[in-house]
Inverse folding.
């Protein structure tokens, strides 16, 4: 496939600067691109790569530095480039078709139109699956679970009983949805299991990464709000509520009954204690340890997590500790010398 720069600009609603008739045959990253490719630049700190890239054209914003290469200027280069990639590399992953003869389907199962069930998957009794949903090989769907339309479940996903999953959800391999919450009562040194009889509710347009675990609630429900995206290897404990359009990055751990607002970002390996609130639009940076609630529209970092600028000042002070130690030693010597003179 090949497109002129003008045709691509019309697709993404951008403006061409330079030769609009050059032909583009592919799309690639700014470092990997070769002649004939179009690339993009969204972060100004990589502006030096604009003259180094071998790409024939660059999609960028109007405030980017000048370059001799033809450009397409747009308000959101990242989003525009998503459309371009889709044009040059149309999605054709070859999803399975139909219901494999090895799939085990229980009683009173309701399947919408064009549902796909892969080899050796188990669909338990009283499950409801919406139209155009695809379940790959080796998945387990527990009884009374409801799955919406146009949902994609990759191989070896386990979804336990009485779970509700919305429309257009993507769940990657190895995820476990609805496992028991970690609840025990310790009596005279013995840990007695507390039954976990709640459920998990996942909204529309959620994406759940590989090997994510989302525990069922003790009584009510664990909730993942619509539009939220969860990276690989995340642990979400029982009764957690995550608001809409939040981003949870890899290896985050969220303890039980924590409430997370809308449009919250949790950086990689952040850890949150239970029974706290994280306000709307808050950002928790990577490897932070959050021990208390975070107000809306706040960025926190460090361990324990503090307001971002406070942590930066603390870290800067720590860097100066060796100098401060040497200064104290020097002052101590001077004091000792003065005391010695006074005592003569």
């Amino acid at each position: 496939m090949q497109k002129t720069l003008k045709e691509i600009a019309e697709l993404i609603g951008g403006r061409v600067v330079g030769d609009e008739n050059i032909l583009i045959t592919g799309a690639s990253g700014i470092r990997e691109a070769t002649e004939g490719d179009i690339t993009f630049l969204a972060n100004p700190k990589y502006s030096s790569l604009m003259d180094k890239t071998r790409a024939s054209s660059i999609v960028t914003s109007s405030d980017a530095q000048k370059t001799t290469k033809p450009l397409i200027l747009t308000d959101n280069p990242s989003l525009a480039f998503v459309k371009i990639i889709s044009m040059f590399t149309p999605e054709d992953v070859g999803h399975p078709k139909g219901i494999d003869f090895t799939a085990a389907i229980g009683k009173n199962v309701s399947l919408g139109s064009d549902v796909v069930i892969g080899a050796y998957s188990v669909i338990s009794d009283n499950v409801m699956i919406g139209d155009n949903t695809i379940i790959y090989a080796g998945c387990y769907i527990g009884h009374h679970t409801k799955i919406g339309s146009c949902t994609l479940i990759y191989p070896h996903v386990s979804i336990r009983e009485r779970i509700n999953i919305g429309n257009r959800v993507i769940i990657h391999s190895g995820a476990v949805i609805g496992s028991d919450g970690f609840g025990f009562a310790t009596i005279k040194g013995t840990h007695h299991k507390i039954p976990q009889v709640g459920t998990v509710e996942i909204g529309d347009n959620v994406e759940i990464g590989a090997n994510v675990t989302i525990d069922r609630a003790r009584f009510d429900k664990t909730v993942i709000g619509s539009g939220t995206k969860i990276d690989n290897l995340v642990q979400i404990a029982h009764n957690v509520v995550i608001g809409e359009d939040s981003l949870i990055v890899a290896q985050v751990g969220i303890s039980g009954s924590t409430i997370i607002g809308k449009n919250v970002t949790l950086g990689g390996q952040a850890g949150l204690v239970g029974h706290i609130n994280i306000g709307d639009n808050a950002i928790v940076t990577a490897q932070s340890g959050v021990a208390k609630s975070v107000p809306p529209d706040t960025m926190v970092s460090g361990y324990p997590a503090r307001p971002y600028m406070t942590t930066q000042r603390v870290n800067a002070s720590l860097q100066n500790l060796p100098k401060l130690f040497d200064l104290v030693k020097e002052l101590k010597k001077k004091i000792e010398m003065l005391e010695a003179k006074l005592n003569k």
User: Anything to note?
Assistant: The mean pLDDT is 94. Helices lie at 5-12, 77-88, 308-319, 321-342. Residues 36 and 73 are 18 Å apart (CA to CA). The first strand starts at residue 3 and ends at 4.
